[in-house]
Amino acid sequence: QFGRTEVIDNSLNPDFLRKFVLDYCFEERQNLRFDLYDVDSKSPDLSKHDFLGQAFCTLGEIVGSAGSRLEKPLTGILGKKCGTIILLAEELGNCRDVATLQFCANKLDKKDFFGKSDPFMVFYRSNEDGTFTICHKTEVVRNTLNPVWAAFAIPVRALCNGDHDRAIKVEVYDWDRDGSHDFIGEFTTSYRELARGQSRFNVYEVVNPRKKMKKKKYLNSGTVRMGCAEGGTQGVCAHPPLNPMSPQVTLLSFAVEAEHTFLDYIRGGTQLNFTVAIDFTASNGNPSQPTSLHYLNPFQLNAYSLALRAVGDIIQDYDSDKMFPALGFGAKVPPDGHVSHEFPLNGDASNPACRGIAGVLEAYQRSLRRVQLYGPTNFAPVVNHVARSAATVLDGSQYFVLLIITDGVISDMAQTKEAIVNVRPLCGGHWGAADLPPASPPAMVELDGDDIRISSRGKVAERDIVQFVPFRDYMSGGPGAGLSMAGLAREVLAEIPDQLLSYMKARGIKPLPVPPMPPETPP
Questions:
Q1: For the sheet containing 372-373, what is the strand order?
Q2: Phi first, then psi: what are they for 291, rounded to 5°?
Q3: Gap between the Cα atoms of 421 and 341, Å rounded
Q4: Nearest Cα to Cα of residue 50 among 60, 41, 61
Q5: SS3 category, 104
Q6: What is d(CA 34, CA 72) in angstroms, rounded to the nearest whole number?
């Protein structure tokens, strides 16, 4: 039991106010059950109250529904209509603003004997106890007393923890190769001051407190300046210093933008378009033999079916029509027995989509009985198949996910690399590969691209959108099998939210507004 709502007296259409905060994990199947009771006394024992019905769903099912609003019938009492429950999910609105700033400086102190200075800045936010925590460090600008630093982005919560009046301390240093950087000076500001943009309020004198104590005539060690983000002069200090002789730092640009989350896009209607491709090559073994990865056991699912269901049961919550294209590759197909690397499991080349994950599993088992396992193991045709579909939807309304389940012995490595490299700039997609035993060749790890970004014909992939997972790492029999499949799905799907965000950001696609609530069901 996670929690209970408040009691609403004498109502058949209660609108509960109490909210429940849960950790949301896209890559996990988070099962939920809702039980409703008619309260007859103050007893906390539920058996003392009348059971009114229950509903089952997943958290993903709620957030994946239009507007993150799910309506489900209540069940649990035989032969009786128990009514309806309406569930709403909302992402907690923590501060998600990101500020982009740029600074330049004038007349900083000369610290190097044979040159000028190599200045950089360090930003600190103040804590409740009066201490300071470092939150950003600029790059070093070499050999100048009038540096212009590159613009940088920083979450507002990192800069001031959401308190716009909290002090922000900035220190300016001269970089030294041995790490003993020379302190030039410092100044303080606040997020509220910085948000004024390019103005006289954002020109700061850089003061070295020690020099100020020792020297009566000391004024400062430079100035820092800042200015506007739109239409401002980049790389030029647009305002004269407060004192022409004093060193200053100036804010050159300031802009704030809300950082969108994965759920912003899902709530706005973005659908995950899921396609599965299954390896039908002879290296998997004869499906009639228990040693085969395709073994058709009447009593339990084979390895391919387990991997498909583990991933599909999660991702189906984010596709409203629940129609999933399912392809096979590496088999001789009827009627003429030609080898195909892109055949529909349901036998319909014009529409390879199956209804639900159950429909995909059924089409897969039917295909095993009508095709001949053959070879070689070519990925490129199914990758290109999904890429062609993805290239027709560039408005962010759909994001395409291809799950390839294979025994891992890839034959067309060069063509597959070229297919992946070519589709990445064009369309939103993520390619997941579940590698079944017995092999995990280096080729599969290379496609993953976590360490070295894959390339083809001198062209480097713009994004890393391949996730390779060895199935055998999650194999177990007995009661723990379900947990192992959950771990497999978690690793296969874990990168999708960040990949979707990186694609949307690169193309400048913002989430659509949440669709309006449908009219409530009458009592």
A1: 338-340, 331-333, 372-373
A2: -80, -10
A3: 20
A4: 41
A5: strand
A6: 10
Distances from the Cα of 100 to the Cα of 90, 125, 152, 161, angstroms: 27, 16, 5, 16
The C-alpha atoms of residue 293 and residue 289 are separated, in whole angstroms, by 9
Q: Where are the domains of the chain?
A: 1-91, 97-228+249-258, 262-507
From first CA to last CA, the distance across the chain in angstroms is: 28
CA dist 92 to 19, 376, 412, Å?
11, 49, 46
The phi and psi torsions of 389 (rounded to 5 degrees) equal -65, -45
Q: Is the separation of the CB atoms in 346 and 354 below 8 Å?
A: yes
Q: Catalogue the E-assigned strands of 131-236.
A: 132-137, 152-155, 167-174, 182-190, 203-206, 222-226
Q: Kindly report the backbone phi and psi dihedral angles of residue 371, in degrees, each rounded to the nearest multiple of 5, phi listed first.
A: -110, 165
Q: Dihedrals φ, ψ of 312, to 5°?
A: -65, -35
Tens digit of each residue's pLDDT (9 = 90 or more) over 352-410: 999 999 999 999 999 999 999 999 999 999 999 999 999 999 999 999 999 999 987 78
pLDDT single digits (tens) 312-359: 999 999 999 999 999 999 999 999 999 999 999 999 999 999 999 999
> b or e along 26-37 (b: 16 or more beta carbons within 10 Å of the residue's beta carbon)?
bbbbbebeeebb
pTM of the prediction?
A: 0.70
Q: How many CB atoms lie within 10 A of CB 200?
A: 10
Q: Which CATH superfamily groups domain 262-507?
A: von Willebrand factor, type A domain (3.40.50.410)
Omega within 30 of 0 (cis) for the link into 298 = no
- Give the number of residues written for the chain: 523
**126, 323, 325 from 401: Cα distances, Å:** 44, 13, 11
Residue 288: Cβ-neighbour burial (10 angstroms; 0-12, 13-18, 19+): exposed
CATH architecture of residue range(s) 97-228+249-258: Sandwich (2.60)
Asked if 87 and 70 count as a contact pair (C-beta separation under 8 A), the reply is yes
344: its two tokens: 């529909």
